[in-house]
Amino acid sequence: MSLWLWTFWTYSFLGYLLERGYAIATHADRQARKCFLLLPMCPVYGLGALAVLALPESLSGSFWSLALWGGLAATAVEYAVHVLYDRLLGVRFWDYSQVRWNLRGRVCLPFSLAWSLLVAAGLPVIQAAIAPALAAVPPTATYAALLVFTADTVVSLQLLRRAGDPAVLSLGNLRAA
């Protein structure tokens, strides 16, 4: 269980870095957070990675098979997380409605294709590099990290429910509050 938690947290952090890099590279006018945590983590990436890693070997054995099934798994997770954010919190962290070939603004073909290639090209390499280190994390560190993650989740959810806007999680808005 500890390995799955650290895998989730690691990919959530890497996803946060990817989001920040994408926002900087595209000169996004609104560089809003794409996740519900105060910590620099995007859980949708962690959940997506876990879904892909849970695929049977028969579906993930080759580059193209992993691209297809991994991309579909990541896209399904992205859709489900968007629905949960929308229905449970009344918040939309991303909206692809202006992107061609989108499904209710929750997912879109261009990003699904990007996830497919990213999963097939990056996940096996990254996972091979980090798995030994994550497996070696002592249980006390896992419990401490779980406590921090849980506290962040509770506080973030309360802030989002109260404000109804993901901007409440930005550092500038937290300082003003």
Automatic annotation (TrEMBL):
The keyword Transmembrane helix applies. It comes from Dysosmobacter welbionis. The keyword Transmembrane helix applies. It comes from the Bacteria. Keywords: Membrane, Transmembrane, Transmembrane helix. It holds the Pfam family ABC_trans_CmpB. The chain crosses the membrane at residues 6-23, 35-55, 67-86, 107-135, 141-160. This is Putative ABC transporter permease. InterPro entries: CmpB_TMEM229.
